[in-house]
Amino acid sequence: MRTFLLLGFSIAAILSAVPASAQLSEVRINEVLYDPLGADSGNQKVEIINQGGIPVDIGELRICENFRYRGFPPGVILQPGTTYTVHVRANGTNDGSNFYTTTQYPALGTDSGSFGLYKTAGLFTDPDAILDFVQWGGTGEAREDVAIAAQIWPMNDFTPDATEGLSIQRCTEGAGSSGWLVAAPTVGGTNSCSVATETVTWGALKAAFD
Predict the structure, then answer these.
(1) Total count of domains within the chain
(2) pLDDT digits (tens, 9 = 90+) for 121-177
(3) Which of 163, 135, 187, 164 is nearest to 36 (CA)?
């Protein structure tokens, strides 16, 4: 029992020793539904995911869209592997899984636009403050220059255009549009790229035995 307790203490000590900046760096923009079916206002969603192994306080993060910013409420803990949905230009009650920017916040661009994820510390022009970024429909969107300087987004790059009702979803960790897929929305669930990979693998195995 003593060995177990000491081991447990050691693990806890190691986890608590991980710098907050390292924990925050594992949070990613996972999916963007910028052109939903019907009216865009109040139906647009951005999904954030904690890809790391350490819980993260969402209050340490803020978003940037069209040079408008909004901080997340403090004290909401995003566990490893879980997601947090930002409801853009929508009113609602914030909880452990959802954040509403209110209708005073601008809507995402449906022809072109961008979305950035930042630490609360630092300026929005500071490459050390930006954590993640994605742009769609074209180049030159808000804070593209900061993402390029931070080496998290390639110059003159943007994701494939998602037609009405579809979303863009992160499939790989690599920076840039090559890591994103256009598919039916999966906000709150597993991105379509993972499902597609499993389907293809099973199909290949089945074909090999037929």
Answers:
(1) 1
(2) 899 999 999 999 999 999 999 999 999 999 999 999 999 889 999 999 999 887 699
(3) 164
Residue 57 and residue 21: Cα distance in Å, rounded?
Answer: 11
CATH number of residue 25's parent domain: 2.60.40.1260
- Is 155 inside a domain boundary? yes
Which pair of structure tokens corresponds to residue 196? 């597609």
Distances (CA, A) of 67 to 51, 95, 137: 26, 25, 17
Quick check: is 91 in a domain? Answer: yes
Three-class DSSP labels, 56-84: EEHHHEEEEECCEEEECCCCCEECCCCEE
26 lies in a domain?
A: yes
Summarize pLDDT for 26-40 with one digit per residue, the tens.
999 999 999 999 988
Q: Which amino acid is at 208?
A: A
